[in-house]
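Appendix B. Raw example, untouched.
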Amino acid sequence: KNNPSTCEVHKMTQVGKCSRIGNDVKIAEKCSFKRSFIGNGVQIGAHSKIIDSVLMDYVTIEDNVSLTNCIISKDAIIRSKSILKDCRVGSGYEVQLSQNFLAKFFFRMIFRP
């Protein structure tokens, strides 16, 4: 289910019945979503596939990305042609171009005095 008044979902994108899309989301052409939650302010590039995953607010997914059973935290960026399965990406983390990972955790270390 989505809020069509604040979403831009390309007409060639498939959204499964058990998926939910937040507000101010932009989804490019030929994407596919199954059993996933897409938070507010998320941007998703063309030809991306999201299955059994959670994308929290303000995540950026570039073109040709595949996510399966992943949790992507707020403000994270997944660069083009990356494939992630069973991964957790921490807030603000950037997965570089053309990465392929299985069961990895990505978090930025923040040191405070």
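End of appendix B.
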